[in-house]
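ok posting inputs for the zinc ion job
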Amino acid sequence: MHYIVVDLEWNQPLNHQNRVYREVGDRLIFEMIQIGAVKLDSERRVIDSISVLIHPSCYLRIHPRIQRMTHLGPDELADAPLFNEAMERFMAWCRQEGDDFLFLTWGSDDVSVLQQNLDFFDCHPDMPPLCDIQHQFSDAFKLKNRMGLQPAMELMEIRPEEGRDFHNALHDAYYTALVWQKVPDIANTAEYARQPKQLIHPDVNHGRVKGEAFDSLRLAMDSETARQPKCPTCGRPCEVEEAGYVPQAADKYIGLAKCRQHGNILVRLRLRASQSGRVILAVSTAKATPPNIAYIHTKQLQIRQREERGLRVDPEQALLNAERSSVPFED
Ligand SMILES: [Zn+2]
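and the output
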């Protein structure tokens, strides 16, 4: 028996109005661009690793936010194989030590994204289910909440390594493997096998949404609801600026979108973690004033500068720990 820790990176459409998205968006919300994996033997020693890049077939332009995070862009993906060939290479690597292995992944997002890509590309490799070792980790250490990978590393006193940035599927898989090595008893791992959830596009009503549940903060922030809020005046979907949302508190984000007819729209996101571990997202929109715009642009710049200095908090964890903040939106 061996173990394969898997992590994925994926791209998303730049614009939800574009032709490709309108054609395939209900079947492919996120398109995989990298599979990273680390192989462990039965004693949980790291014995091999692989990174398979995937040339996108649908969303050919890499979203600037994704490119900034993953450092994967057109140059890196230019010579990469298409999805089906990439999966074939990956599965061949998985089987080098035989067919008896378990797939492990941190959380359940990757399970659903992988399944959607497999379905979309009509690819049906014979593979075991993915086990959610984030859940196993919380149970093993009796944690109340699910922990992000970085806080879990801190808790286990695992330091990030030089040249291994987060948000690279290979590095994240490697760190996940190091965290999993600390789980005292792994006899129950197969019990954490996860069924993929269907990734859907909720239909958003005019202006305001009461609240909609997602499996993680990341999926909530990448959802059509968050990326494409509706203009408060005409109800048409508007695209959020590429620089994205800025946090005001762990459970509150604001950003700007533009309606072709009605100009700048201020978008407010309110999030909360539900009892069952899901993330509830509510969106409201209003006409943006010049001070709103100046404020958001300043914040975006500050965030970029902080990211460049390597300082970042785990927003997923911050949300779990957040008391509902009572401060009003500062805009
Ligand atoms: Zn409008």
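notes: The chain has two domains: 2-194, 212-321. Confidence is low (pLDDT under 50) at residues 202-209, 323-331.
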